[in-house]
Amino acid sequence: MIIEGKKRLWQEYQKEIADDNYFFVRSCIRQSFFPGAEVMFLNIMRDQLGKDVYENPGHTTCTGIGYHTDVVPLETTMTVVARQFALMTEAGYKNYAVSCITSFGLYSEILETWKHYPEIEARVRENLKKATGREFRIPENVAHASDIMYKYRFEIAEKAKYKLINQDTGEPLKVVEHIGCHYAKMFPHKGVGGAEYPYVLVGLTEALGGEIVDYPERRHCCGFGFRQYIVKMNRGYSLSCAKTKFESMKPYKPDLILTNCPGCPYFLDRWQYVIGEMEGITYGANGYGIPVFTYEELAALCLGYDPWEIGLQTHQVSCEPLLRKIGVSFDLNRKYLGINGKEIGRPAKPSILMVE
Amino acid sequence: MKSIAIIGGGVAGMEAAAKLSRMGFSVTIIEEKDQLGGKLMQWHALFPARRPSAEVLSNLKKQVKLGINTILNARVERIEKNDDGFAIVLNHNRMITAHAILLATGFDIFDASKKEEYGYGIYDNVITSVDLEKAFSSGKVVTAQGKTPKRIGFIHCVGSRDEKAGNPHCSKVCCVTGVKQAIELKEMIPDSEIYMYYMDLRMFGRHFEELYKEAQVKHHIQFIRGRLSEAFENQDNSVLIKIEDTLLGKPLKMNLDLMVLLVGMQPSGGIAGILRDLEVEKDADGFVKQTDNQLAPSKTNTPGVFAIGTVTGPKTIEETISEARAVTLEIADYLHNKVASRILMNENYSL
């Protein structure tokens, strides 16, 4: 691998990311898949970096999954998105921060469409006005939340309590990253580092002391292609996609899979359990899986947030071996206690995949 | 004596210079590199007979020695048109004048790193057909790790017939170049497996089809109709490719020790200023526009400015040589008629 070649390419894919004052829109599914991730983003932004992040509880789905599965017509999707922009405009914000990759891709697609077809934008404005009486301005800056973490990666690293260094060996942890298809594959210049050799998660990992491992199936889908998973008969494709990735990354012995998208961490996490049950195969050391984190979870962990406050107990693959490698102190007895100290219930143990 | 400035000292420029000089014109070649030869210098052997490039180059250079003014390391800063013809300002404040200009600036090789998903410049063992010619010249083809490659794949149409890459045109010579290189590799490494991944094979020239057949029958080179979607690097630095076999209609995965990208020709980006100053039009594909493809292929829209070789589109060396010879008559005709018309207009005009 010629790292200089990658660096040259990364230079061509740099984007403008707003400094402050973000209107934040959440993902529909992240809040149930990994409920701590978005909370950690807000905590890091507000408490660690001192940034103004506003969210309006009235914002809705962007309809991205409905759009991509042909359930919601594009014009309806555009009008829903226009309403989100109206909420931003009414709140006096100009910078749009997006939690979800699919939403980010959809916003990019719609804004690009409006740029080339202003008559469509005009029709959507009219639809929104008729339906809600609202008007909107186009955001001055649209960034995915990982872009913002990337922008402030050195500030985060400076405040970090832990580095991505194996405490036993002193070596950087090996991280494989997965940015999610909708982040940059549609519009490579909207993503930091482009689509083929994205840099957004690489930059964060390196700033935190880890080492990125490029593996042959890095670009392969995680298995949350909507037509693979949402169409029940196609779920075997979803599983085989994830398995293709695990088999490809296994020889590199990664300590962690770092993800960007709502679906990727979920599928790369849960399918390790399923593959274990179906085929008796595990991909981490000693019968464990390879932990799968989102970028906010990883940043929060390094900043010293409690792993259970971050929500790492909601992951199928046990994070504890990784926490020990990094040297994170944690209380296993508190793993399944909620914020109010009450037991939140414990998952059944898989028969093959080792968990704690 | 009438003067002609030839911009570009490759195959087209050298051949035209020699012939124009023999016809009695004062000829100046303006070459931006420190020697004549153009891209031919990068080539080891020529299709279809694998004649050494050096032999052709040496013959062309010999002709140029005969009374032709050659300015090397010369960059055209600007060109001004005047009643007599053209004033060409070069770097280092040099200036030459000419009654006619011949554009022989050639082409650019497609930058394979633009096909990011193929990994050129990032993966150790992805090279271009140009790199392979250099390796042939060195007498050794090895992987970046110094090993003899056992499985080699050629990817056709890299930067050609590719709208996403900005080049919808066919580069014409890559198919036969690939077949020639595959045979050379097979002869160099007899126990290697060689695969050609092609969109179409355009064996248009004389002896090309025979070469294609030889590759299959004698050298057992495998031709797979398909398009490369993306490539990756394996842990052992070999290249994993994902191809769609478009005859079987199935995806295909394969490991290669070495992947060769057959890079195409594209319009020269360095002559934009020259074309602007001369008000020469380009065609939709970016190459210089010929005023009449059939009857005046070397004429541009600007009187006194001619264009030959790959500046007007992908061509073989044979075609380029033919154009270079033909344009001499066009230029002579232009200069003769221009003088005649001036005599009619102005009796004081002196020959």
Offer a concise description of the structure.
Chain A has 2 domains: 20-145, Glutathione S-transferase Yfyf (Class Pi), Chain A, domain 2; 146-341, Rossmann fold (3-Layer(aba) Sandwich), CATH 3.40.50.11810. Helix content of chain A is 46%, strand content 8%.
Could you describe the 3D structure shown?
The complex is a heterodimer of chains A (356) and B (351). The model of chain A has no long low-confidence stretch (mean pLDDT 96). Chain A has helices at residues 3-12, 30-33, 36-48, 64-68, 74-90, 101-116, 118-132, 145-151, 153-159, 181-184, 200-207, 226-229, 235-249, 263-279, 295-303, 307-310, 320-326; strands spanning 22-25, 53-54, 95-98, 141-144, 174-178, 211-212, 256-259, 292-294. Chain A folds into two domains: 20-145, Glutathione S-transferase Yfyf (Class Pi), Chain A, domain 2, CATH 1.20.1050; 146-341, Rossmann fold. With 356 residues, chain A is an alpha/beta fold. Chain A is built from 17 helices and eight strands. In chain A, helix 3 (36-48) packs across helix 15, helix 5 packs across helix 7 and helix 8 packs across helix 11. In chain A, the strands form two sheets. In chain A, strands 2-1-3-4 form a four-stranded parallel beta sheet. In chain A, strands 6-5-7-8 form a four-stranded parallel beta sheet, with helices on both faces. Chain A is globular, with a radius of gyration of 20 Å. Helix content of chain A is 46%, strand content 8%. In chain B, the strands form five sheets. A seven-stranded mixed beta sheet of chain B has the order 11-17-12-13-14-15-16. Chain B has a five-stranded parallel beta sheet with strand order 5-2-1-9-19, covered by helices on one side. In chain B, strands 6-7-8 form a three-stranded antiparallel beta sheet. Chain B is of the alpha/beta class and 351 residues long. In chain B, helix 1 (11-22) packs across helix 7 and helix 4 (174-188) packs parallel to helix 5. The model of chain B is unreliable at 347-351 (pLDDT under 50). In chain B, strand 1, helix 1 and strand 2 form a beta-alpha-beta unit. Chain B is 27% helix and 28% strand. The relative contact order of chain B is 0.16. Chain B contains seven helices and 19 strands. Chain B folds into two domains: 3-106 and 268-350, FAD/NAD(P)-binding domain; 112-264, FAD/NAD(P)-binding domain. Chain B has helices at 11-22, 53-64, 129-138, 174-188, 208-217, 272-278, 317-345; strands spanning 3-7, 26-30, 45-46, 51-52, 69-71, 76-82, 85-90, 94-98, 100-103, 107-109, 126-128, 151-158, 193-198, 222-233, 239-245, 250-256, 258-263, 265-267, 305-307. At the A-B interface, helix 1 of A face strand 14 of B.
